[in-house]
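Team,

Forwarding the record for the chain on the shared tracking sheet. I've put the sequence and predicted structure together so nobody has to dig through attachments.
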Amino acid sequence: MTRRPDPLVSPDGHPEPEQRRDLIGARLCVTRHSIVRPLLLIGWKLLATAKGAHDMTMIGAERPDTEVETILGVDTHLDFHVAVDIDHLGRRLGESSVPTTVKGHERLLRWAERFGPVRCVGVEGTSSYGAGLARHLGAKGIDVLEVERPERRRRGSRRNLKKPDPSDAEAAARAVLAGESSGVPKSGDGTVEMIRALRAARRSAMKARTQAANQLQGLRVTAPEQLRQRLRGLSTKELISVAARFRLGDDPRDVPTATKFALRSVARRYEALSAEIAELEAHLERLVAQVAPELVSWAGIGTDSAATLLVVAGDNPQRLGSEASFASLCGVSPIEASSGKVVRYRLNRGGNREANRALYMICLARMRRDRRTKEYVARRTAESKSKREIIRCLKRYVAREVYRVLISCDARSSPTGPKAEVHIASGSSAA
């Protein structure tokens, strides 16, 4: 009869050191080939007591030998940012709050790198409060993804009574980890960003000029009878020219004098705004021709429409991925509205409405002047298509042409070519 080998004796007959065992006599140390994992790996620690029993205590996850990449989520504000760092398994590592300055951005990056190399950062509001942080991280070579803000519920809802900023930051990090981020934000560091700033100034100046013209017309209507008869029948341009040259004293003492003073002030404001708009338009024309000369050479595309489409795409149009994404961003991607045997598509009410308007104006200009567009409209009209459906199809074609021009211009201006897309896999790690 063979005797069972003693588990505490090695095959050569020498006794092995005493092995630690748990309550049922199983060894605590397992071999590397065993499918059983020690409890230390899942956060449990065994503590031996004086009586030989074992106390089981929950501890935090131990740091592995190799560094694990982390994901940072940031909830942006005007004066400070709140950040939460998580690892590749979604475990929360810590939170921090920093001011919205260069030193604050550096401190945030140093704090996040204490937990491991930062793989990606999800930032809310990369075009507003988070623009500075996104540019700073991009300059450091860190991938930044734009995260949509959480849906705001009704103020009367009980679930919306408390909404701490760290929870939004953690939600941003988890959105990146789950692959639910909006995409790569605009870089905001090139000529297109200059165009965006100049367009914003021009838009506000045009609104102020329109308001001045309306106010001038209102003052003429309510002016005293003698002054109103003098200004009656003048066009807006003539009214501004006459009112801007009124000669008055420094101290108006009656109603007619005060009305003339107001008319002169508003008319001179209109002239100053017109000069400002002309200067901004000259800068815009130069920059647009510098960035995308092919775009303004196409039929029906002027400086204003080209500037609008450039701003929508940004300095890095390759972030959109495809012309279908650009069409969806502009609100010209078709939406199926079929019913029964009727197969049709309807207009897209979403997307950037300024870009949609720019494409609409381009289509109208081509329908009046471009020969190919006229032939297309005639052919589709013969197929019983309505004008609205024809314009919808034209806007989709124009969006495809514009995207190809933007990508070709960006490839020529960028010596390194488009950057690779950022992919975040929840199951991958640095180890």
